[in-house]
Predict the 3D structure of the following.
Amino acid sequence: MTPKANTPRQPLTKERILQAAVEVADQDGLGALTMRRLGTELGFEAMAIYKHVANKEEILEGMLELVVGQIEIPEEGADWRDAMRRRAVSARKVFSRHSWAIALQEAGTATGSTTLRYRNAILGNLRSAGFPMEYVAHAFSLLDSYVYGQVIQEISLSFDTSGETTGGARSTLEQTTMDDYPHLAAMYEHALTHDYSFDGEFEFGLDLILDGLERHRAKPPS
Amino acid sequence: MTPKANTPRQPLTKERILQAAVEVADQDGLGALTMRRLGTELGFEAMAIYKHVANKEEILEGMLELVVGQIEIPEEGADWRDAMRRRAVSARKVFSRHSWAIALQEAGTATGSTTLRYRNAILGNLRSAGFPMEYVAHAFSLLDSYVYGQVIQEISLSFDTSGETTGGARSTLEQTTMDDYPHLAAMYEHALTHDYSFDGEFEFGLDLILDGLERHRAKPPS
DNA sequence: GGATTACTTTGTACACTGTACGATTACATA
DNA sequence: TATGTAATCGTACAGTGTACAAAGTAATCC
């Protein structure tokens, strides 16, 4: 029961805890992220974590910050369209990789300094590009909504495609089901035969939105 | 311990269970929806529910179906732009009222017949409007993403505004915080002085997207 | 060196979750 | 009234977050 001498196991730190938490959530989902599991992963008892973190909520906040910190952040003077495009593409990629982060955002956990800096930078870029404040809010809201929504759809579609754990009953269910929904069936078929990609889908909508914003930027504020 | 004779309490049905579950989630959130709480709400023991429902998952699925069923569903021949606008506005309103439903969507629970019928109707309307299949997919994905994303933002923003349970430390925190994020501060200020509304914000983006789709509809498929 | 002090880590315990299983009750039909 | 069936309840169990106190470890001073 004595600690193994050859494994001097680094002391626990908040950084190591958050890192491990993100890994667990990436691999097995937010549901698998329990304090005991996290302790095991780190080589400590669950309760040891509480000396570095007030409660689980604080871990979730930290995880979200870690994720947001990976998103490409626009510079103030940069061309707004290019900057917004890059950050949207980057945000979608990051949130796709850590899809549990959307749920955290929903839970109102997004008040950390990284998130604030990220949002502030976006607004700063748009303002320096000459958007009036009203349109800055519009552009910000629109682009962010699109990114979040797109990721949600990717997640739920991935679930649908992978089947509901029982692979056997799939084909029957699929058959019965799709007869009643011809348009859905047609779209699935189209997607399969035209190698549909989430990337392409996302960029189509993104460019459409950016086009629209550009048009509004030229016009007088309604 | 004998059951009260003056309360003939109707027998449990799946409909009544789902109805009660939605009410609990609306009032106190998904987290408050436990089997025991649900039983209390219905006037039964928690275990009585399991005679009408396989497990909690089935309840969640049913709840999502109940919510999606409230969304205004477009008719096949209707003007696509009007139909899409109405259903988007309707969907946002419904999901705002039952904000927990977004989380369920994320969990891959959206395979019920109501959901399938809803999606099928949307696709049908777009196809009958002359969109080629590729653009049908684009329009569908784009609009849905926007609705979901917008609702997520409304939820998380509502959390931020209401403060984190401690109203006292708010002003200090806010002050310290906002000095480092001038653009964020400017936007908050703008929102407060120009009576910002989620409704207006949503409709701006929605019309921008619809404009963009209309433009694409006229052009040849890229 | 040894003692004191501060900080980590751990063990145990509690209230809560979903739900398996068996006992009990209520009700329709004979 | 007696019987069969469906609905309901009580109890129990494993797993959750975490409060609290005991134990361990590291750093500092004599």
